[in-house]
Amino acid sequence: MKKKSVIAAVGMMSLWLAACGQAGGTGNVQTEPSVVETVQETQSSEAASVVEETQAAQTEAPAEPTVPVQTEAPVQTGGSAETEAVLEASSTETQASSGYEDNFAVDSEAAAAFGTQVKEAVAAQDLEALADLAAYPLYVGFTDGSVNVTSREEFVALGAERVFTPELVESVGNADVNSLSPSMAGFALSSNDGPNIIFSVVNGSLAIQGINY
């Protein structure tokens, strides 16, 4: 009987020790990290490190300047008519600034315009206006003798009554300014071979140079 009690006690002790061993083994398994978890943590750490390095490189790298693309402006070309008009206007401006070279360089429109000014001064018997249109010295061929007037004041001093004779007023008044033709002496403003006023190019401009009675 006593022997059976001892055997039973030994058996119970063995079971208790086995239970303790299983409990201890289970605790060790649960507390130790698994291989899979360790690998995952390592991969996550490496990925985070790569991201941080990439962001740091992007921050440190200087931004490349943007170079604007240059485009050539198209060259505008006008038509032949526009080109001719520009050249003609330029030629006219150049001629006006430099003046006429001689009487033959004066166009008919310019001669007619100046002749009209002379006619208006004679018709009004305005000696001051006529004096402004003259160049000096000025030849004045009176029927009783000719004079060379050297200045505007000297010409005005001759007096309107002596300068504007009825014959001169009539001859110049009937002159056709549109039929004036140039010569070496200039343009003769008169009609029916009567008294005339001669104007020509002086220093690039038209001016009266002679009055013949």
Q: Can you walk through the features of this model?
A:
Residues 41-83 are annotated as: Disordered. Residues 50-68 have a biased composition (Low complexity). Keywords: Signal. This protein is 54% helix and 15% strand. It has 213 residues and is α+β, with helices and mostly antiparallel strands. It has a domain at 97-212: Nuclear Transport Factor 2, Chain: A. It is rod-shaped.
Helix/strand class: alpha+beta
**Tell me, what's the shape?**
rod-shaped
In DSSP terms (H or I, runs of 4 or more residues), the helix count works out at 8
Q: What fold name stands as the CATH topology of the domain at 97-212?
A: Nuclear Transport Factor 2, Chain: A
Biased composition (Low complexity): 50-68
Region (Disordered): 41-83
Signal peptide: 1-23
Keywords: Signal
List keywords for this structure.
213 residues, alpha+beta, Nuclear Transport Factor 2, Chain: A, five-stranded mixed sheet, signal
How is the secondary structure organized here?
Layout: H1 2-31, H2 35-60, H3 80-98, H4 108-123, H5 127-132, E1 134-142, E2 145-149, H6 152-157, H7 160-163, H8 166-173, E3 187-189, E4 196-202, E5 205-212
Parallel strand pairs: 1-5
Antiparallel strand pairs: 1-2, 3-4, 4-5
Helix pairs in contact: 4-8
